[in-house]
Write a structure and sequence with these properties.
With 492 residues, the protein is an alpha/beta fold. The protein has 15 helices and 14 strands. Strands 3-2-1-4-5-6-7-8 form an eight-stranded mixed sheet, with helices on both faces. Strands 9, 10, 11, 12, 13 and 14 form a six-stranded antiparallel sheet that branches. Strand 12 and strand 13 form a beta hairpin. It is globular. The mean pLDDT is 92.
Length: 492
């Protein structure tokens, strides 16, 4: 039976929660009195689906379903968690949470997405506050992994542990706030930065775009991998943090910042900010800007994943969990082998693109290599059986026919052309999904190797039987036009 959650509110945060839960295989029961809530959530889900299918080559679980409900109590039925994401008004949140608490089964967790209100305050009207906590996410919820978990005075430790496990299963990184505090951890730091940004614009020192440039072209790039304290530790050189604090600590006494003061949001300041922000947006709609943001986040997350650091490490861990939950595809007696095998898909990531604006030629070989690995898995050669041997590449002939561009979705088909006890001859074709263009082909010869003795050896009888079964079926297919081609200039 599929897992399910109830959501109160389908705005920017609630809609982001809906997208994350749905795309991680949960069913969603959504309550929102806004008559446009379903449309807005659907548009956000489309953006999320676009981003997450680009983010990872690991398939997502089967997508959940969303049911719009008429009352908060209905959202709490048949679910394991109710996530409240209503506007930041104490009385509104308290009323919603109390109603849900009265309707939900005793084992249902209840969480608020509040960005700063203490859970003890929000739980005042709840009959069973032991299962209530704050789970504060960050926008876009479906991409950013951080979720701050904060317990109230009467939150049960078991509820916190259950929440940590649940949000972790969504590919998130739960940060448990050690003490209940207004604003939690991240927003307290962001509030300080926001105050300074407003003063810089108010005093005419910088425009809104220049303030943004100061972050995205400088410290923001460091923060993505290093955070705050590790950044400053590195700034201390070989002597580390103590040296940094000794050198720059006294500067904290200088009157640079205005953290205890806030500029008055006069009509003049507001008009300035709005006009400059409109100019910065360049006529792009909110949904278009969300897509730009998501595309950039996907690229940063993928780069961090390659280094297994920060949010990239969270992504890699979740991908491993998804891959482990999805059994590897192995040949089955009922498989239809009358067509070329379709065993591997990929996407052209930002790191694949070279100065010409298309995928570097080495990435074609990478995709074909991954397709060969998928073929070996299909033949029953998995990590556990590698000690008995596997196929090693001895010759490849690639033909590059068309360019593969950023974000292109790719699929590979495979035909077995020949086999004997020690050798395997295959032909791969690389296609672009959407227009069906043939981008490249690869003809490859493999030799089966005893991985212990490190020399050629016959394949195991069961593996060889599977290959021969596929080969017999593929003999009825037309031979690929480019198979057996040699390289050369005619007449040269």
């Amino acid at each position: 039976m599929r897992r399910a959650v109830g959501l109160l509110g389908g705005g920017v945060i609630g809609g982001g929660w809906a997208a994350r839960f749905l795309l991680q295989g949960f069913d969603v029961r959504l309550y929102d009195p806004d008559p446009e809530a379903e449309r807005k959530m659907g548009e956000m889900l489309a953006n999320a689906r676009r981003a997450l299918t680009s983010l990872s080559a690991v398939p997502l679980p089967p997508e959940g379903t969303v049911t719009m409900v008429a009352t908060p109590a209905e959202a709490a039925r048949g679910v394991e968690l109710v996530q409240e994401s209503a506007p930041e008004r104490v009385e509104l949140k308290q009323a919603l949470l109390a109603e849900v608490c009265a309707a939900a089964a005793p084992e249902v967790l209840i969480a608020s997405s509040t960005s700063g209100l203490r859970p003890t305050l929000l739980a005042e009207g709840m009959a069973n506050p032991g299962r209530f906590l704050v789970a504060h996410p960050f926008n876009p919820v479906y991409l950013l992994p951080l979720v701050e978990l904060c317990a109230g005075e009467r939150t049960a430790p078991a509820a916190m542990e259950r929440a940590r496990a649940l949000y972790g299963s969504l590919g998130m990184a739960p940060l448990v706030v050690r003490k209940e505090i207004d604003g939690f951890v991240a927003d307290r730091m962001l509030e300080a930065l926001w105050r300074e940004a407003l003063w810089l614009v108010n005093d005419g020192i910088a425009s809104v775009e220049e303030v943004d440039d100061a972050i995205r072209l400088g410290a923001g790039l460091r923060w993505a991998s290093m955070g705050t304290f590790l950044t400053y530790r590195i700034a201390g050189g070989e002597a580390g943090m103590r040296h940094f604090m000794a050198q720059f600590g006294p500067a904290l006494q200088w009157p640079w910042t205005r953290l205890t003061d806030v500029p008055e949001l006069t009509d003049e300041l507001l008009d300035t900010i709005v006009a400059q922000s409109d100019e910065q947006a360049g006529g792009r709609s909110a949904r278009e800007l969300e897509q730009v943001r998501d595309d950039c986040l996907v690229s940063v997350l993928q780069a961090l994943r390659a280094r297994d650091i920060g949010a990239g490490a969270v992504l890699a861990r979740h991908e491993r969990a998804l891959a482990a939950a999805e059994p590897a595809r192995v040949i089955d007696a009922g498989d239809d082998l009358s067509q070329q095998l379709s065993l591997h898909t990929a996407r052209v990531e930002a790191g694949w693109v070279d100065y010409n604006g298309h995928a570097h030629e080495s990435r074609y070989l990478q995709v074909f290599g991954d397709a060969s690995d998928a073929l070996f898995t299909y033949l029953g050669i998995d990590a556990a059986s590698l000690a008995g041997g596997s196929y090693f590449t001895v010759e490849s002939h690639l033909s590059h026919l068309r360019e593969a561009l950023l974000d292109d979705r790719l699929s590979v088909t495979t035909q077995i052309l020949g086999v004997d006890p020690r050798r395997l001859h295959v032909f791969h074709s690389l296609w672009r999904e959407g227009d069906g263009a043939l981008l490249a082909t690869a003809e490859q010869l493999f030799v089966h190797v005893d991985t212990v003795a490190r020399r050629a050896a016959p394949a195991a009888p069961d593996v060889l039987a599977r290959v021969e079964r596929i080969k017999a079926a593929h003999d009825a297919l037309p031979r690929p036009q480019r198979a057996g081609r040699s390289i050369g200039i005619p007449g040269a």
